[in-house]
Amino acid sequence: MHEVGIAQSILTIVEKEADKSGASNVKRVKLIVGEFTGVVKESLEFALDIVKKNTSAQNAEFIIETVKLKTYCQECDKTFIGKDDAHFLCPDCSGILGIVEGKELKIEFIDVE
Ligand SMILES: [Zn+2]
Predict the structure, then answer these.
(1) Which of 107, 6, 88, 79 shows the shortest CA–CA distance to 47?
(2) CA of 106 to the centre of ligand 1 (A)
(3) φ, ψ of residue 38 in degrees (nearest 5)
């Protein structure tokens, strides 16, 4: 379960940010997780619950927003949503699709007090 490692990295960043602003308590953290990262939302929530113990984020609420995979064909100027295009080939022209969204894993905001 690589979500534990990810949760630990997130916590490290969150604690650093809280430190920087002199806050003792992290209230809310919003995360953006792309579908194509392979991160399972429930597993990440579970992992965060474990790693946040005894940190300034122990009472924080983690909001996880998942972003669907979005691919784009330059030839047809078309955008495709969802992970059906597993081979990343355009269904119309068989061209190679580029990934527009869905690879991201980032912290959108951190609320501290
Ligand atoms: Zn195409």
Answers:
(1) 6
(2) 30
(3) 80, 5
**pLDDT tens-digit readout, 72-100:** 999 999 999 986 656 789 989 999 999 99
The per-residue pLDDT of the chain, averaged, comes to: 93
Q: Ligand 1 centroid vs 103 CA: distance in angstroms? A: 21
Check if the beta carbon of residue 110 is closer than 8 Å to that of residue 20: no
Domains and CATH numbers, the chain: 3-112 (3.30.2320.80)
Which tokens belong to 103? 């690879």
Q: How far is the CA of 105 from the centre of ligand 1 (A)?
A: 27
Position 11 pLDDT exceeds 70: yes
Ligand 1 centre distance from Cα of residue 34 (Å): 23
Phi, psi of 78 (to 5 degrees): -120, 150
CB 26 within 8 A of CB 63: no
Whole-number Å distance between alpha carbons of 14 and 20:
10
